[in-house]
Amino acid sequence: MATFKWSLHRKRYFTRLSLVGNLVILLYIFNVHMYVPSTSQIREMTIVRTSRIFSGYGSSNPFMLTSDSSDLPEPDLSIVLYGMREHWFIFCNYTEFAHYKYLITFPRVINCPGTNRSIFLNYTKEPLEISNYDVVVFSNVYEWLTPQMWDWTHGNRSEGQRWVMITEESPLYVPGVEPPAKYADLSYDWFDAYKSDSDFVHPYGKYEPFGAIKPAPIDITKYLINKSQLVAWMGSHCETLQWDRMKFVGAFKKIINLHTYGKCGDEPVAWNNDQIIFDVLGKYKFYLSLENSCCDEYLTEKFWRALEMGMVPVVVGAPYEHYVKYAPPNSFIHVDQFDSLTELAVHLIGLNSNDEKYLEYHQWRNVGRLISYGQEEQYVRPLNNETQCAILTKYFQTDPNDQKRIKYFGKKWFGSCNKCGAKEWVNSFMHPDNYTRDNADIWAR
């Protein structure tokens, strides 16, 4: 099967136009109402693109993939990224993210370190295209697959083909990969997300206690140096789906000296420049790490980056006990620890005037290390070589006869998002169950 598919991939670029063209004519004649690629899309699919052979995850050597590339070793697995985010093509072309540009080069062959195996990786938006691949990856969280396209996609699923859903977002922000109810438990074989019960677990960060070999102790009083300001918040998505984050920020701002930045704040900050962000936020003792969703184990870069920058996060998001489980010990302040917003404000003001008490939130830095995955790294994770190689490893370790589909879009997935706290005052900021956004696009600013 692998040899057959590889041969198809070599030849397909020269035959696809006529095949799809004939299909369009037949559909027109028989008046079959199905999704048909546009002329520009058909033309785009015929282009032979520059590819690269990757050795390991970082280095690369230029290679042109052509229809007569008979000298290429035949890949062990073919994977197609089905419907990528359009913004990835923009993001990976930014000058400051030039090291990610190879991620949007298709098709490409990936040599997976330590496996002696390789992957043919490609990209398509067309349901008709997926049947020739061993694995189909769904990662575009934007709402682009219509019910009709889901029908056609399932109709083109080949026998034994694996479907993988990859997302770094919460369940509330992934409409593009949510199948219709009739396909809920018939779609995905594997699941890649931040949750610990995922097939591929990729949290935004983690804490590891030091082992027998410990680094030299650091003087944690350095986390008092240049800390001239109290608390800050930075946000770029203002209207959230589950709870009213802006209402919380506004209420807190009335009772404490809170400075706000970003598109939702009083002062803009370049989101894609870590040094500028550090220069702005590094002078604050506390940072409001307010997640867009309150879901189990959902601790994003808003939390881990605050720790990295030497601040103490004040958190709204996952339950208190989940922060206790995954975060460094005594490194954060959770809203559920207080009986009112005013009590929280009083606590921060008290810590601000008591260096000894404040530094207790930094003692963990001498007993363990922080492993944080950057926001940009997490954003492009569905595209990177390491992700594809993890799929390859699981593919060859899984019984081909095991075709059990998993239903993540039930209690296991959506059921992991509940209220934003155990205290009534915290949940006063929750949206009503029938809440709808003013802007239909859930990703609108």
TrEMBL record:
Q: Where are the transmembrane segments?
A: 13-36
Tell me one Pfam family matched here: Glyco_tran_10_N
Fucosyltransferase C-terminal domain span: 226-400
Q: What is this enzyme's EC? A: 2.4.1.-
Question: Which keywords are on file for this protein?
Answer: Glycoprotein, Glycosyltransferase, Golgi apparatus, Membrane, Signal-anchor, Transferase, Transmembrane, Transmembrane helix
Q: Which GO terms describe its cellular component?
A: Golgi cisterna membrane
List the pathway annotation.
Protein modification; protein glycosylation
Where in the cell is the protein located?
Endomembrane system; Golgi apparatus, Golgi stack membrane
Question: Coiled-coil annotation: which residues?
Answer: none
> Principal localization?
membrane
Segments forming domain Fucosyltransferase N-terminal = 122-205
Any one Gene Ontology molecular-function term assigned to this protein's record:
alpha-(1->3)-fucosyltransferase activity
Specify the protein's topology with respect to the membrane: Single-pass type II membrane protein
Query: What is stated as this protein's family in its record?
Result: Belongs to the glycosyltransferase 10 family.
Name of the protein in its database record: Fucosyltransferase
Q: What is the lineage of its organism?
A: Eukaryota, Metazoa, Echinodermata, Eleutherozoa, Echinozoa
